[in-house]
Amino acid sequence: MPLANGAQRPGSADASGKRVALVSSCSKVQQRGVTFTLDRAYPCGQFANGDYWVTPTTGSLDKVKVVSITPAYFYDSKARAHRNGLEVNPSRVDRHGFDSDATNFDATLMRAVPYSAAPNESLVKAVSLLGHDKTNLDTAVVLTVLSAAPPDGGSTVFRPPYFGRNKPLYSTNGLRVDRLPTLPGLPDMPTLGELSARFAPVQLDHQRYWSADQIHPKQNMPDYGAVIAMDTAVASLRLMLEGDPAERRQLAIHLTQYGIDLDAAMQGGLHFNADGGHRHGRKLVLSLAALMLDNPTMAARVRDFQLGTYQEDDQLHVGAGSGLVLFGSPCSAADYWENQITGNNSRDCRDPYGYIDGGQQPGDYYQWCCTAKAYKATALALRLMPALRCIWTDDRILRYADRWVAHGAWTQPDPYQPRGNGSLDSNPADGTGRWPDAHGAARDDGAYANDFADAMWTAYRSQANNVSSCP
Fold first, then answer.
1. Which among 7, 83, 160, 443 is placed 20 to 30 Å from 187, CA to CA?
2. DSSP string covering 38-76
3. Residues annotated as region Disordered (predicted)?
4. Does 10 reside within a domain?
5. How many Cα atoms within 13 Å fall on the side-chain side of residue 460?
6. Which whole number is the average pLDDT over 28-55?
7. What pLDDT digit, counting tens, does each position of 380-423 carry?
8. Upper half-sphere CA count for residue 21 (Cβ side, 13 Å)
9. Could you write out the DSSP letters of every residue in 71-111?
């Protein structure tokens, strides 16, 4: 990145290897293959997570003029599509302005360049993924315009949330890494550095419903919630093991940054409703961020959001018939039976009578493929760090994970007839109930598994705290 007067790059290392925190002067800002070219040199620096900030200079009318951004926006006439969009302070959870192949694209949200950015504006630039599969974006970066240089040149400050107009500056000086347990490490555990690299790019995660997958940038994050959920659980579990203090702190910074962004978007209407395997993994990030920041207001928002906010809460319920925590998303009895009889409609419907695990077949489909293993890893993180449970509050995931590991799918006893549209089963000759042969199926099994998470369960579940004391 060209810097005026030969100044050192913000956030770079000096000869001793120590990170330098200073304010420099930038006419260009380059990050992850994206270049913002400015009309002149402006004061600039990096936040603790590595993202850049700039401020106006005297005589610039209190704005920063961006004259070009590469890769540039273009209209793909062959595909009749908008590519490489730019949004400023994204504030919609049901619309975006990044790539028109992605669901819920709204061209009115795009900003043209040249663009004069005012303080407290986050410029979110996306790079489209041509020849895409599921996601339509390759990468995304955030450039934040502030009214003045942040403390310590930004090196001890989190990037303010890219979502919305409110741009709080949270300090890393009070980061409560002391609240993390420091358990003995395990063989073949992931390194803190590789996990930091995974979460360092902006996690562009402010859209509702399954279509949000389509704007998860490929280089920044997985598109699918099942992978996101396992990634967040693995990173949280790794934080709880011994390691270099500086590297642990950096990983905690990246996860907390993700939580800061999610918290802002949730105040703007974002939620993570139960939907197959798309939407889990974020409640753990939010809980951890509130705890690391020692922020009771953020913690209260995690606790106080209503039903329908988090997949982990809505996809697990205490069955009226069994009294156990069962798998299945909210739906009507008619929808459930339509799926059981025809295979159509939602494949993760809960049992309307509360006796057995839901889904098109207990122990299969979304219960097996896309939730069980991440729920297990998340439950272990909550048990190993009881203070997280004071923010999470609901214990269904803890009870469910223990049952899944010890037993697998739950289908007995069940008084209802298979494909009987709610009829009682009075013929025990073929086993009473809808799925008698599935009782105990897939015990401790599931797709999107992670060897480290499973090894953590083996090593630490038996000694994990089963109770939490919350104020």
1. 443
2. EEEEEEEEE-TTS-EEE---TTTTT-EEEEEEESPPEEE
3. 411-442
4. yes
5. 26
6. 97
7. 999 999 999 999 998 999 999 999 999 999 999 999 999 888 99
8. 12
9. SPPEEETTTTEEES-EEES---SS-B-S-TTSTTB-GGG--
Is there a domain that residue 168 lies in?
Answer: no
> How far is Cα 317 from Cα 354, in angstroms, rounded to an integer?
9
Average pLDDT of the residues in 293-302: 94
Runs of H (alpha helix) within 139-278: 192-199, 225-239, 245-267
User: Which of 121, 102, 106 has the alpha carbon at shortest distance from 217?
Assistant: 102
Residue 127 lies in a domain: yes
Q: How far apart are CA 98 and CA 127, in angstroms?
A: 8
Angle between helix 372-384 and helix 451-460 axes, rounded to 10 deg: 40
Mean pLDDT calculated for residue range 113-119: 96
Number of domains in the chain: 1
pLDDT digits (tens, 9 = 90+) for 79-88: 899 999 999 9
Whether 105 shows a pLDDT value over 50: the answer reads yes
Here the tokens at position 190 are 């992931």
65 domain-assigned: yes
Q: Which domain holds residue 123?
A: 1-154
Q: Is the pLDDT of residue 436 over 50?
A: yes
Structural contact between residues 410 and 322, judged by C-beta atoms closer than 8 angstroms: yes
CA dist 75 and 84 (Å) reads 9
H or E stretch covering 274: none
Residue 325 in contact with residue 371, Cβ under 8 Å?
Answer: no
Residue environment code for 278-301, b if the CB has 16+ CB neighbours within 10 A, otherwise e: bbbbbbbbbbbbbbbbebeebbeb
